[in-house]
Each structure stands twice: as C-alpha cells, then as structure tokens.
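CORE FACILITY INTAKE
Project code: CF-77B
Contact: R.S. (postdoc)
Sample description: multi-component assembly, two entities in total
Requested service: structural model of the whole complex
Turnaround: standard
Below are the sequence entries exactly as provided by the requester. Do not edit them.
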Amino acid sequence: MASIVFIIISGAVFFFAFKAFREVYQNIQLGKSFDSSGKPSERWRDVLLIAFGQKKMFDRPIAAFFHLFIYLAFLFTQVELIEIFIDGIFGTHRFLAHYLGVFYDVIIGFIEVLSLLALVATVIFLARRNLLRLPRFTKSELLGWPQQDANIILLGEILLVFGIFTMNGADHLLQNLQPEHYPQVALPISHITGPILFGGLDVSTLQIIERLGWWQHVLVVFGFMIYLPYSKHLHIFLAFPNVYFRPERSRGEMENIPTITAEVKSMFGLGPEPAVTDEIPVFGANDIFSLSKKNLLDAYTCTECGRCTSVCPANLTGKKLSPRKIMMDVRDRATEVGKKMRTSSKAEKSEPFSDGKSLFDYISREEIRACTSCNACVEACPVLINPLDIILQLRRYEVLTESQTAEAWTPMFTSLENQGCVWQVPQERDAWIHS
Amino acid sequence: MIRTMSEWAGSDAQPEVLYWVGCAGSYDARAQKVAKSFCAILEKAGIRFAILGQEEKCTGDPARRAGNEFVFQMLALQNIETLNAYNVKTIVTACPHCFNTLKNEYPALGGNYEVMHHTQYLNQLFSTGKIKISGGAFKGKKITYHDSCYLGRVNGEYEAPRALIEALDADLHEMKRSKANGLCCGAGGAQMFKEDEPGDKRINLERAEEALESGAKVIAANCPWCITMLTDGLKAMDKQDEVMVYDLSEMIIQNI
C-alpha cells in the first residue's frame, strides 16, 4: 500500500518537475548561440575548482564556511536519496545497509553530522536575512517575493533536517527493540537525540514516528524538486554548466561585431562592400532573443546573493544600478516570454514573437548608464555570472539601433569621429612635446 | 628628444618600443606631466622609443564601452593600419584603458602587438638594472596605492606597481578595498565624459575618502582618469594640499 502511494506521488512529482525544468531549458534556448570553444580540459578544471570546489565563495570566508555545510549535506544526501527511492518503491528498510557494510555507517554518519551543521548554517542564514538584515539582503530589488523565496527555501531545509532526525532518532531506538527489522547502523547524532526525544515510547509509536520522519524527508525533497525551477535556487544545478560555459574571451575584451568591422573596412577602402540586405540590422540587445544563451543561463543560475551589488561602485553611491537586479530582470523577462510563447495560438507562433515589451520595460536607461564597467560584479560572482556583458549589450542597442545615448556622450562621439580624440581639441596631438 | 614614428622612419635605427600617449597624455594638462615624466625616464634609461604623434587616435575604449561600436571600429581600424604600416611590435602606454584595448581588443581586428602598461615596463627596466630607483623623496613616507580597474581586476596586474613602490622605499598602506577588490574611481565605462547618474554621492568622493582613511599623504596611481577623479575627490573635501596624487612615473623620475 505504502509502496503504491509512494510510486504514485513520486511519478506525479517527476512529471511536474520535468515539465518545469524543461520550460527553464526552453527559455534559455531562446537566446543566441555563443562561443563555447576552448579546451574542455580547462573548462572541467574550472568546474572542479569553482563549482565543486567553491573556490570563489571563499573570498568571503564566513559565508562560505556556513554555505559549505549546506552544500556538503546536499551532496552526500544524494546517496541517501537513492536508498529512499529503493525503500519507497520496494517497501524495504535501509536497503543499502545490507550491501555496503561499514561504508554505509560512514556515509550515514557523515550525513547526520553534516545535517546538523547545515541546520546551524540555515538558522544563521535566516537570521542574517531577517534579524541582522544585512544590506545586500534588504536592497529594493529583493523586497517582496525574492525575500520570501529565500525564506521558503531556508525553512524547507530546516523541515528536511528535522525529518532526517525524527526518522533516525526513532530508528536508533527501534534498532535495539526490533533488530530483525531495523539493521544496526551507527548514528552519531541520533544515538544521543533519539533517546532524548523519543525514549520510553513503545514500538508501534516509534514505528509511526519513524515513518512520519521518513515521509517528511521525502515530501520536502519532492517539494523542492517542483519548487526549484520557479525559485531563485537553481544554482544548485546550474552553477556547474554555468562555470563550464564561461566565455573564452578575456575579461577585458568585448565581443566583436563582425558586420560593423566589414562595414567600416569597406568605408575606408580596406575591404569589399558588404552585401546589401533588406533587413534593418539590430545591434546589441534589447530583449532575451538578442542576448546569448549564456546570458540567459547566467540569469537562471543567479541565486540573488548580491555579492555583485555589494561591490558595485554605482550601487554603493546610491545610483539605481544593481547588477543583481539586471540578472533578476533578465530571468523574469525570459520566464515571461517563454510562458507567453507556450500559450500562444498557432497563428501567433508562425510570426516572430512580440508582446510590445522589451528588456527596457524592466531595466531603465538610468541603470545601464550608471555602470563604470569596472568588473567588480564579474569578479564578485562565485559562479561566474557576468552582469556587465548584458549592460554593455543594452548600451550597444541604445546607441546603434535606437540612436540615443546619455546626453554628454553625444559630443564625445562627435569628437572621436571627427578628431580621433575624446575631446574637441584645438591643437595638434603632439603639441605637448614642445610645451 | 621625443621623436615620432615618421621621424624615426627616415633614419637607419629603429625604435625598440612605441609609447602610446593616449588622449589624456596628449591633451590633459595633468596627464601631460605624466607623459613627460615617463619620456624622461625612457631617455635616462637609454631606450629608443617613438610616439605616433598626429597619427595616433583614441583607441576607442570610451566609444566601445558607451555602446558606440561603429566609432570604436573606425578608430581601431585606423590605428591598426598605422601600427601595422610601421611594423610596430611592442607598445607601452601609461593609460590602462588604452592598454586593455590595445592588448585585448585589437587582436580580433588584426592588430597583434606585445602591449605593456608603463608600470610593467618600468618594473622591467628596474629589475633588469636599466634604471636605478633610490628612496629619496618618498623614503619611509606613508603612501597608498590605487589599483585601476583595467590594470588590476581586468588584466590581473597588481604586483608590478607595488614592486616600484617598494623600490621607492615607501611605506605602503593599503586601502580597505584593494587589488581584486579595489574600488573604481568612477571614470571607467566612459563615465569620465559625463556626470554621475543621480545618487547619494559621487564615486570619486567615496574612493578619495577611503584613500584618506589609509592615513597616507600620497596616493600613487597608474591611470590618467583615476588621477583626475581622485584629485577632484580630494578637492571636494578641501584636502588637495594635504594629500597628493601622483602617477608612479612622476614618483620615479624624482628619485632616479
């Protein structure tokens, strides 16, 4: 009976989770393809160091330390999750204990210790957001849903850990009462907490408590699977591909626009005249279709930690620009467009998508014009997200496609074009030698 | 004597290195002093160098980062034509924005050169014994160093300028935010050529305050825009007479 319930629930969960994750994947595919050349060996090394190894997290050691507990607990619990599925489907109990021997005790023991540490970290993280109210967690772009989203995830983690300790605490007592059904497993935390919480209860009550804990654990995991694709928490999966697909270009190089190179070369008589087309060229980006898939992957990878915004010179001095908001806006727009496209009629689908909106309905001119391109946000991101790349593409769209820009930049462009200098200048460029 | 590439072309000898002066070095009164100091050091070290003179144009960095790719490419392609016509191999520049664009962005357009920032070049001259730096004026003095974004965070050069400060025997006091965490002066991304967007404070003031907090009486910098920004920040606090902002080449020429 329990097996059938488990199979039905998990089937439904997998169905809905698969659907939601596929939608995220489809949304990312709405972007343009990007250069993913470069040695795979070097990319894998970065995945190992930066994603698995959390290298950049440790630029802020205290946060990194607590985050590491939650991360390791998450990694190791995957082993237990495999067992939970086997037990759930076949009605077994601690299936792997019979096969893994001492190794099983080591893993389960590890998970117990890590779960306790993760619990401590989660409480600290909740306090940091809700009691200490660190500036980067209370910026305007986080007010409302993003703050709730973060709290839901942290509370979910607490529920998960409580499930594990309820399950293991009762299990520990049952190991002595019914050794034939409950294999001996050393539980470093629950052998202390079990007797305190459930000591003296009879076998049938303990069995019910053990099952309740087990189901709590499973249901929270199921909840996460469905919730994640709608939350800001996708970094637990996407951090890995996001690091792998890091750009091959160096930080100092903006992506070239070859059609402009061809046009300018032809203008100077350095190359052939470009082929004439009817299409009005679009340069830069004003929507997710003109951003790259990597930009969109960046947006879905962002977990809104705000390290970027906390070091942004514009944001620090009270300007509207927040690199984190740029990433959140791009993700929200991609989700909006994806949803509209999936629900549009056949006739609409045959036309290029248009809903009369663009990224500029989310991101203001004032924001993108405040950027100093200092790369502090790029440096700060633990999972190699690049908000600057998006900002500069939006600027390109403004100037090249819309012919508008910050007022003071127009005379700069004019003197650059006419005199090859950032200023309108009266003398020769080498007059300084003689002064 | 500072000679241009076209003047060199008339002689048998070839310059070892091209000094890329940039718009600031060419036209901004403060940055001209830096250009002169740097040339004076090159002369003392006996380096055969050239400038492009009237054939040099802005590298296009501010146009590109403001979004005007068309103007950037016009400037870049003209510069690359000139540089390639003179068969230039090595470029040194006192501006980290010129440095970055020449080094990282010209190759995609057919301009491949060995590009050095002047602090890297000076450190090379110093470590190979071509110039001798003595303590002198800055010996034991409290100095702080401002990492420019495009030399530091973008191109990863933190050590060469610090090695020069050590050679000056100065007492380096780092600011709260330095190296990879260094705070921008506020000029990058073409901000130099417009007002800050509305906010609580100018970025250069924030950085100048931080420099003051370090307790240093001299701020060493490596970028003409940073120098302007920091100097303006100090002026806004009326500290321009107490704390000086120098380019590293100006500090070295005093103590060579």
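Facility notes:
- Chain B has a mean pLDDT of 95.
- The first strand of chain B starts at residue 3 and ends at 4.
Invoice: internal transfer
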